[in-house]
Design a protein that fits this description.
Helices cover 29% and strands 21% of the residues. The strands form 5 sheets. Strands 1, 2, 3, 8, 9, 10, 11, 19 and 20 form a 9-stranded mixed beta sheet that branches. β14 and β15 form a beta hairpin. It is globular.
């Protein structure tokens, strides 16, 4: 990394400029670098603020993205809360004392599963956002292809608005002293948050609404809380039935905790004493509390009408704001960056078709819309909605109240057990995938149905040698074939038309034959076809049995819809897949 702070060191021209060095901006820069593309990141903050932990859930999909960049183990090592410590979310009437009763438990919340995880190469990880950002910053510091400019803020893109906007774009940046510099860039990415200057330069506004009531996050220390809790360890405790309703969880194992008090009037000022009283109402009066920071906020459900104009793109909070319920917001941001990175790299390297970059918003905006809808539904059932004065009572009245609450809390399952949302999103309507005419699994936020239907995430499998199927997917396209269905013919020979099509259009592709899963299931059964064409982001672009159809699909997946093979080869695909319908298995993972 070239870390720049002085005005005279700022480059006058760059190819890729990323406004914002939060998680999505840093991940995008590192993903581009992994594909050989340099970028410049402009970030106002010179340091990460640990008093504002913000996101705490890194889900299994994001951890798999980080694994692809070699960062998953580094993040787990840096996390102050190991997966082995706790995996559950517990709803309760309190944390300490005889009146604390467990109401309901959601096990393995947020894909927290010790040991080898099946649905992805990585399980989830609870880690504060500042820790994640420090891991990303350290990776950027070691990467010569990323220039990181801290202490400067992008204030606008001068020639961005209107249909006539064409690169290079003039990006204006200022420092706290008022010094202004202009950088010309061929591609501009707005990863600069909810108040994005890049988005404003495009004349776009986030559209949607806000929750009726606000919340306050409280970071605090307590030396006695851990030993005073009468419940099992958990990553989150949701306290209902007390004067204050909300959530409490450990930030680390050294006495730092976080709390979110729900339903707080934002017009009422909250002092440190008020915040401590709120925390004690959740955890118990006899616990020592030292408030470190407070952060009032309101859940937003906002979405940009467009994700790009010309060669200017919006990622993360610049494009959408999700309610935090379920922990999807930050993870959706990383998904944006992963989708854009390979398409931007392909464009710069010259093998992208004219439709490739346009597909970014076409694919990612519906994912954000679905995520916002699901998170908003979760926000309709917060802790105070289950408050009942009888919950902490003794005797039959208390037992009956707790039984009612346990049953009512079933509506919260999709907030903590959301594998269908985390892994089940698909780009089935994208122009970059070749539909096969077979029905898609029904959308369900809880249950995930692994499917190789074009547009879906490649179903994961552990192979007999202990490696992940994803380890066979390269940085370009990958044609994966079931080795047992090739009749001993080398995969490169069988799928020679794919390699020829790739050479003709300079599209990077690898062909690999893999055997059965570790459970002995042939991969052709898992996929519903003898082969799948996998995109650089691990989504399926095509599945089928014909080398010629695979070659045609490669052109489509790279944004070229005019390859002469497409019209003649693609109809074969639907016919050949008819022969596999009886053996195709889409197993539900609860």
């Amino acid at each position: 990394m070239n870390a720049l702070h002085n005005a005279e060191d700022i480059p006058g021209e760059v190819q890729v400029l990323i406004a914002g060095g939060g998680p999505s901006g840093l991940f995008l820069a590192l993903d581009l670098a992994a594909r050989g593309i340099p970028s410049t990141v402009i970030e106002p903050r010179t340091a990460v603020d640990h008093t504002r932990p913000r996101a705490k859930t890194t889900n299994a999909r994001t951890m798999t993205h980080l694994r692809r960049l070699g960062l998953a183990d580094l993040l787990r090592d840096a996390s102050p809360l190991p997966v082995d410590y706790a995996q559950d979310v517990i709803f309760c009437t309190g944390l300490t004392g005889p009146a604390s009763h467990e109401l309901r438990r959601f096990r393995n919340a947020f894909q927290l599963v010790p040991g080898r995880y099946g649905p992805q190469p990585e399980c989830g990880q609870q880690v504060p956002q500042p820790v994640l950002e420090e891991v990303l910053r350290a990776a950027v510091a070691d990467n010569p292809l990323v220039t990181f400019l801290a202490g400067w803020t992008v204030t606008g893109v001068s020639n961005a608005e209107g249909d006539a906007a064409t690169p290079p774009y003039a990006v204006v940046a200022t420092n706290p002293g008022g010094t202004e510099r202009t950088v010309r860039a061929d591609f501009v990415i707005g990863a600069d948050g909810a108040s994005s200057a890049v988005r404003r330069s495009l004349g776009l506004r986030l559209e949607g609404g806000s929750a009726a009531l606000s919340n306050i996050s409280i970071l605090f220390r307590s030396d006695s809380l851990a030993s005073a809790i009468t419940l099992d360890p958990a990553v989150q405790y949701w306290v209902v039935g007390s004067e204050t309703s909300g959530m409490v969880g450990p930030m680390d194992l050294a006495g730092t905790w976080w709390a979110i008090v729900q339903g707080v009037d934002p017009a009422v000022a909250v002092s440190a004493g008020d915040a401590a009283a709120m925390v004690r109402s959740l955890v118990g009066a006899g616990v020592d509390i030292e408030v470190l920071a407070t952060d009032p906020w309101t859940a937003r459900m906002l979405l940009a009408p467009e994700y790009s104009r010309g060669d200017i793109f919006l990622v993360g909070d610049a494009a959408h704001l999700n309610p935090p319920w379920g922990g999807h917001g930050f993870n959706t941001c990383i998904g944006d960056a992963a989708n854009l990175a390979w398409k931007l790299a392909a464009t710069i390297k010259g093998w992208a078709g004219p439709g490739l970059l346009d597909s970014y918003g076409q694919e990612r905006r519906p994912v954000a819309a679905r995520t916002i809808r699901d998170a908003a539904e979760n926000g309709k059932a917060l802790a105070y909605h289950f408050a009942d004065p009888e919950l902490a009572a003794t005797g039959p009245a208390g037992e009956a109240a707790r039984e009612r609450a346990e049953a009512a809390l079933a509506v919260k399952q999709s907030e903590f057990d959301s594998l269908g949302l985390v892994l089940g999103y698909a780009y089935g309507d994208s122009p970059l995938v070749v539909p096969d005419g077979l029905p898609a699994p029904a959308e369900d936020p809880i249950h995930y149905v692994p499917s190789a239907r074009p547009g879906a995430l490649l179903p994961h499998a552990w192979l007999p040698d202990g490696t992940s199927l994803y380890g066979h997917v390269g940085t370009g396209f990958t044609l994966l074939a079931d080795a047992g269905r090739l009749g001993g013919v080398p995969a490169a020979t069988f799928f020679e038309p794919v390699l020829a099509a790739a050479a003709r259009q300079s599209i990077p592709v690898a062909v690999a034959a893999v055997g059965s899963s570790g459970e002995g299931t042939p991969l052709s059964v898992l996929w519903g076809a003898e082969a799948v064409l996998v995109r650089p982001d691990q989504h399926v672009a095509w599945r089928g049995n014909s080398a010629e159809a695979a070659a045609a699909a490669l052109s489509v997946a790279a944004g070229w819809a005019s390859d002469p093979l497409v019209e003649t080869a693609l109809p074969e695909q639907a016919a050949s897949l008819d022969n596999t319908r009886s053996t195709r298995v889409d197993a539900v993972i609860p």
